[in-house]
C-alpha cells in the first residue's frame, strides 16, 4: 500500500513546473509528494516553486523538506493543488477529511487552476459513503444540535474523539468534527450544499465537482482518471 502511495506521489511531480504556486494537501499520500517535491527544489531541478499548505501537518512537512511556504492571502492564484482523498466515485466526487483538514483543503483546492488527487485503488467506490463517513467541521458549541439535525438526512453522526488528547479532536481552526454515516448518498453535490446550509457547520468533507484529475496507484501501475 505504501508503495502505491509513493508511486502516485512520484507521478504527481510531472505536473509541477518552475514558478508554480502549489497547494499542499494533507495526509499520508501527500506527505510523500511534499517529500519528493522538497528534494527536487533542494537539488535545484525546480525553481521558484512555493507551497500553500492546507494544514499544520502540510506546513511542517514542507518546512522540514525544504519547500518554501506562503499563505493563501499572499498569493494571487494557485496553479495546482495536490491532495489525497478517502473515497473517489466514478464521477470523481470525493470524500475527504479523515485528517480533519477538510476546510482549508477545500478552500485551497476550489481555487486551484488544477486539482490533482492522489489515491491508491482501495479508495475507489461506486457510491460515496460506501466505506467512509462524511466528516463535518462544526463550531464546538453547536456540535450536539447539528448531530441531531443530521438525523433528518437519514444519517447518524458521531463526535470524533482524539487519541493523543483527552476529549474531542480539535481542528486546525479550533472546531470539532462530526463523522456522519448516511444511509445512501444519491446526489453528492446536493448533500454537500445542504449540509453547509446548517447553521454552525463550517464545512463538510464532500468535494463534489472539484477534482480535475485523479491518479490511482494500482498494482499494475498508475492510472489516470479525468473529468
Ligand atoms: O483531512 C485529511 C485529508 O482529507 C486527507 O487528504 C485524506 O484523508 C487522505 O489521506 P491519506 O492520503 O492519508 O489516505
From TrEMBL:
EC category: isomerase
| Native source organism of the sequence | Thermococcus camini
Which catalysed reactions does the entry list for this protein? Answer: aldehydo-D-ribose 5-phosphate = D-ribulose 5-phosphate
What protein name applies here?
Ribose-5-phosphate isomerase A
UniProt KW Cell cycle keyword: no
What family is this protein classified in? Belongs to the ribose 5-phosphate isomerase family.
- Assembly with partners or alone: Homotetramer.
Q: Which UniProt keywords apply?
A: Isomerase
Identify the gene encoding this protein. Answer: rpiA
